From TrEMBL:
One of its GO terms (biological process) is 'de novo' NAD+ biosynthetic process from L-aspartate. It comes from Anaerohalosphaera lusitana. This is Quinolinate synthase. PANTHER family: QUINOLINATE SYNTHASE, CHLOROPLASTIC, QUINOLINATE SYNTHETASE A. SUPFAM superfamilies: NadA-like (SSF142754).
Length: 304
């Protein structure tokens, strides 16, 4: 492994590359990354660097978003078959048909979506800012929310806005039941339950806080609590334990594994840099429109 790490570091310098790793990646990949975090945050960080090459250790829609924000850089996805089942649950044709049925509706699209779908949207959102963004939208306009019905239903509950929800979901997050959460709480009394809003309503009701992965890290860092039950993909446990070795983080279940997020390893990162594969691009006519939906999201949210 040490030889692979040395090889990656050498190639990274030669290519003037930056390595990004989503919080759900395996630990050894997170450890060699320049930045770890949420998908959109990573793309924004990479755009601000002087790197010529972005190696995105994540899934396809994340690499697409990195290219949308940094078309002047070469974006590499070390595993070409690392996709997102939720993102694949909606196509541009699906969304266009829904828009035709509701021509006056605004379209809010979760970043976990294909570039072509972002391009047809009025706004993008993240799991961390979806509630805040929808709260800013005109109350006399219908809202189409896609592709995640569970994040969408949470936004509806928090804002009181009726929305037309696309019936997509994350297979990993919906695998967890409220019984799983209750069993973990019984086993670890006093632990605070941090849950991703992609989970089902029953699981959300059994939880203490509903947070994106980035928000989970900040919450745990700022909390006096020493023990947490984490209800999201288990890759984040590496991040949390590394940042806060004095606190205990328990994964709610061994079922919380995204197979696509586990397809990248150190060897694939090295091969990606060596062979400059697999390059991810987005055609300009799609990229420019998709960037517009991301830009509008940032425009309506208060600067922090």
């Amino acid at each position: 492994m040490s030889n692979l790490v040395e090889k990656i570091e050498k190639l990274k310098k030669e290519r003037n590359a930056v390595i990004l790793a989503h919080n759900y990646q395996i630990g050894e990949v997170q450890d060699i990354a320049d930045y770890t975090g949420d998908s959109l945050g990573l793309s924004v960080q990479a755009a601000q660097t002087k790197a010529d090459v972005i190696v995105f250790c994540g899934v396809l829609f994340m690499a697409e978003t990195a290219y949308i924000l940094s078309p002047d850089k070469t974006v590499l996805l070390p595993e070409k078959n690392a996709g997102c089942p939720m993102a694949d649950m909606i196509t541009a044709a699906d969304l266009q048909k829904l828009k035709d049925q509701h021509p006056d509706a605004l379209v809010v699209t979760y970043v976990n979506s294909p570039a072509e779908v972002k391009a047809l949207s009025d706004y993008c959102c993240t799991s961390g800012n979806a509630v805040e963004l929808v709260s800013t939208l005109p109350k006399d306009r219908k809202i189409i929310f896609c592709p995640d019905q569970h994040l969408g239903s949470y936004v509806m509950q928090q804002t009181g806005r009726e929305m037309i929800l696309w019936p997509g979901y994350c297979p990993t997050h919906v695998r967890i039941t409220s019984e799983d959460v209750e069993a973990a709480k019984n086993q670890h009394p006093g632990a605070v339950v941090l849950t991703h809003p992609e989970c089902s309503s029953d699981v959300k009701r059994a939880s203490d806080e509903l947070l994106s992965t980035g928000q989970m890290i900040k919450y745990a860092e700022n909390s006096d609590v020493k023990k947490f039950i984490i209800v999201t993909e288990q890759g984040i446990l590496h991040t949390l334990r590394k940042k806060m070795p004095n606190k205990e983080f328990i994964g709610v279940s061994d079922k919380m594994i995204c197979p696509n997020m586990k397809k990248i390893d150190l060897a694939k990162v090295a091969w990606s840099l060596e062979d400059m594969k697999h390059q991810i691009t987005v055609p300009d006519e799609i990229r420019i429109k998709a960037k517009g939906s991301l830009d509008r999201m940032l425009e309506v949210l208060p600067k922090k």
